[in-house]
Amino acid sequence: MSWPILIVAAVFEIGWAVGLKLSDGFSKLVPTIFTIISFILSFYFLFEAVKELPIGTAYAVWTGIGAAGTVIIGLLFLGEPRDIGRLLCMVLIVAGVIGLKITS
């Protein structure tokens, strides 16, 4: 059950990372509240996941999914550049996350 919990934690990490952008320096109330709630939930679920998973693996997977997911949101909805270098690096992050899952 720890892996699904870790994935939930990573989804909330994507939420707070995107929320940072949308809050415009914490000047917009609703995105700021969303960011804070996502941050708290992300760490809560990470805390729950590391009760059974190795911390190094859990942290790497959490940040990897968070980073890749944030890049995808940026590409699809925030007008961030879609160059081949960024996409290849994101693929490498995802490959690392999959590798950690397979080997643990």
What would you note in describing this structure?
The protein has helices spanning about 1-20, 30-50, 55-75, 85-104. It is an all-alpha fold. The chain has one domain (about 1-104). The chain is about 80% helix and about 0% strand. Helix 1 (about 1-20) packs antiparallel against helix 2, helix 1 (about 1-20) packs across helix 3 (about 55-75) and helix 3 packs antiparallel against helix 4.
Task: Write a short abstract of this structure.
With 104 residues, this protein is mainly α.
Give a quick set of tags describing it:
single chain; 104 residues; mainly alpha
Roughly what percent helix? over 70%
The gyration radius over C-alpha positions equals 14 Å
Number of domains: 1
Question: What is the count of helical runs?
Answer: 4
What sequence of helices (H) and strands (E) makes up the elements? HHHH
Structural class designation: mainly alpha
